[in-house]
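Inverse folding, one chain.
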C-alpha cells in the first residue's frame, strides 16, 4: 500500500492529499522564488512528528537557520540539539573535493542509513557543480532510486540552470522524480510581503490539468506563511505574541 504524508503546506495537504511517501519530488525556480518556505514547512511537519530529518545544502547553515526563523517563526536549532534535525553542508566546488559526484552520493547514503532519516531536503547545487565534471543520466537515476529505496521522502530544490550541464541535470531530475513543482516570485511590496506562485508541472497520480496556487510570505520574525487559493486563506502560523 502506498501512503501519503503531509507536506506541511495546506495546498499540498488539503488539495492533493499530501505527498506520496518514499518518493522524490523536484522544486524548481529562480533564487529567492519561495522554495525555502515550502521545503522548510516539509521539514517542520516531520519534526513535529519526531521523524528524523536531514537538510543537504551548499549554503551557509547559519543563514538557513535565521531565514527559516524569519519565514516561519520556527527554531530548527532546538531540533539540531535533540538530534532529530541534521545538516550536511557542502562547500564550494572550487575549494574542496566534496563536489565529486560519487563522494557526494556515498556520504548522503551513509548518513541516511546510519541515522534512520525519514525526510530529506536537498539543495541540488552540489549536484549541479558535480554535473559540470562527471555525471551521467545513469548516475542521476541511481541517486533518485537510492533515495526511494532507503525509504525516505525527499524534496530536491533546484535553482534555474545556468549551464548546459545543469540544464541536462534538470531534465533528468524532472523525468526521474515523482513530481515537479515550479515556483515563481510575482512581486513584493513595501510592507515586506513577498508574493509567489507554485505550479504542478508533473505529479504521479494526478490527472491534468495540474493545479497551481498563489501564496505570500512576510519576511519578519513571527511572520505567517499565508496561502491564498481563490477566496480561501490557509494560515499556517499564528503571529508571535
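Residues assigned per position:
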Amino acid at each position: 500500500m502506498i501512503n501519503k504524508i503531509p507536506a506541511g503546506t495546506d495546498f499540498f495537504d488539503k488539495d492533493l492529499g499530501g505527498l506520496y511517501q518514499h518518493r522524490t519530488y523536484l522544486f524548481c525556480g529562480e533564487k529567492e522564488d519561495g522554495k525555502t518556505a515550502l521545503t522548510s514547512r516539509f521539514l517542520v511537519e516531520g519534526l513535529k512528528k519526531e521523524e528524523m530529518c536531514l537538510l543537504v545544502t551548499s549554503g551557509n547553515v547559519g543563514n538557513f537557520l535565521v531565514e527559516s526563523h524569519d519565514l516561519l517563526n520556527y527554531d530548527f536549532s532546538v531540533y539540531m540539539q535533540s538530534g532529530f534535525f541534521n545538516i550536511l553542508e557542502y562547500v564550494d566546488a572550487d575549494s574542496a573535493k566534496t563536489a565529486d559526484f560519487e563522494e557526494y552520493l556515498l556520504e548522503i547514503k551513509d548518513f541516511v542509513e546510519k541515522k534512520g532519516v525519514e525526510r530529506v531536503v536537498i539543495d541540488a547545487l552540489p549536484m549541479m557543480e558535480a554535473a559540470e565534471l562527471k555525471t551521467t543520466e545513469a548516475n542521476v537515476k541511481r541517486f533518485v532510486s537510492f533515495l526511494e529505496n532507503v525509504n525516505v521522502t525527499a524534496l530536491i530544490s533546484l535553482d534555474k540552470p545556468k549551464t548546459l550541464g545543469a540544464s541536462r541535470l534538470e531534465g533528468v531530475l524532472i523525468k526521474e522524480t515523482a513530481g515537479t513543482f515550479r515556483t515563481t516570485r510575482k512581486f513584493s511590496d513595501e510592507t515586506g510581503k513577498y508574493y509567489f506562485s507554485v505550479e504542478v508541472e508533473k505529479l504521479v497520480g494526478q490527472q491534468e490539468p495540474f493545479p497551481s496556487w498563489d501564496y505570500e510570505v512576510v519576511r519578519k520574525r513571527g511572520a505567517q506563511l499565508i496561502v491564498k487559493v481563490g477566496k480561501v486563506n490557509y494560515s499556517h502560523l499564528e503571529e508571535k505574541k
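The radius of gyration is 17 Å. Residues 101-115 form the longest helix (15 residues).
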